Amino acid sequence: MACSTHLLYPAAARGHLRFQARPAAAASPSVRLGSGTSRRRALGLRVAASAEQGRRQVEVEYDLQAKFNKLADQIDQNAGITRLNLFSPCKINVFLRITGKRPDGFHDLASLFHVISLGDTIKFSLSPSKSKDRLSTNVAGVPVDESNLIIKALNLYRKKTGTDNFFWIHLDKKVPTGAGLGGGSSNAATALWAANQFSGCIASEKELQEWSGEIGSDIPFFFSQGAAYCTGRGEIVEDIRNPLPANLPMVLVKPPEACSTAEVYKTSQTDPLVLLKEITENGISQDVCVNDLEPPAFEVLPSLKRLKKRIIAANRGDYDAVFMSGSGSTIVGIGSPDPPAFVYDDDDYKDTFVSEACFLTRNENEWYREPISSKITSEEDLPPEVASVSD
């Protein structure tokens, strides 16, 4: 991912320089401009025959803006970066099957993960300290384990590469915690990506993906292109060639309560490849958006079951599917960005998190970019609380 500073100049900086030349009486030293039509075009040089014999008109075009932008890019490349702002998107599980329990206590799963447009923003800057990272966040109450994932990711990168960069990090948190959206895992993946950019990309994306599995099962997914079939603990990632369309809207509805991941894992015998084939060939429907963690999650949190039922009952054909993401407690409605009216009208849901979203992917060797429509436009939208965590 290139980081550059462009020096912008008004249109007046772009102009033409014209001069006329007569053939010299004798040979003289000259600068070789090259020959051929393509070479003249590349140099912005046009030569036209004049009506006056023995005289040619030469027109040289120059563009100061392009010249200075190129120079700025070269300076940035040579100097390295000292600050970096990155979007850290979350994910949903379009379907999730639990296929067994492992000897290490984890569960094997098979799931279609897909990045969506809701996410956090993380600002990184190099710290003069060579002994610790410092992390601040815009909201109070972010779980320590989730915040520490960023620090763990940076420690992991230093351990794997031998680099000694430490950072000041500010986490602008928008993804709710305990939501089954992988917000903490995304933050850790983003931190690994950032550390690699500061170090001149000395590690490959594949290496970052493999290393990240050491600190979290969902983290490797974010080094996919944004849509992947994940198995094992979630760390075995297979990119999906045909991701779900970005123009397919959705709404996320998360009650204040969170589900305990450990309490909701069960096993299932359904073949997840059948679901994957159906989704990639025919799209999303209620029948294929199956989450094995819903029944146990609904036992742990009965209000979540009621929420899903009410959304389905209020659906007037807007949603193609309504389901829980991950281990909860977010309910996803695919097909419309609008939540049902009762979420706003019923006092039982006054503290419910609601957000529209869409599916998101990234290009190889580029990190995810926040869609313009979802960006915060005013500092007044930010929560006033500020918390700080240091390593």
UniProtKB/TrEMBL annotation:
This is 4-(cytidine 5'-diphospho)-2-C-methyl-D-erythritol kinase. Residues 284-344 form the GHMP kinase C-terminal domain. GO terms for molecular function: 4-(cytidine 5'-diphospho)-2-C-methyl-D-erythritol kinase activity; ATP binding. It catalyses: 4-CDP-2-C-methyl-D-erythritol + ATP = 4-CDP-2-C-methyl-D-erythritol 2-phosphate + ADP + H(+). Its EC number is 2.7.1.148. It is found in: Plastid, Chloroplast. InterPro entries: GHMP_kinase_C_dom, GHMP_kinase_C_sf, GHMP_kinase_N_dom, IspE, Ribosomal_Su5_D2-typ_SF, Ribsml_uS5_D2-typ_fold_subgr. Transmembrane segments: none annotated. The keyword Chloroplast applies. Residues 148-225 form the GHMP kinase N-terminal domain. Belongs to the GHMP kinase family. IspE subfamily. GO terms for biological process: terpenoid biosynthetic process. Gene3D superfamilies: 3.30.230.10, GHMP kinase, C-terminal domain (3.30.70.890). NCBIfam families: ispE (TIGR00154).
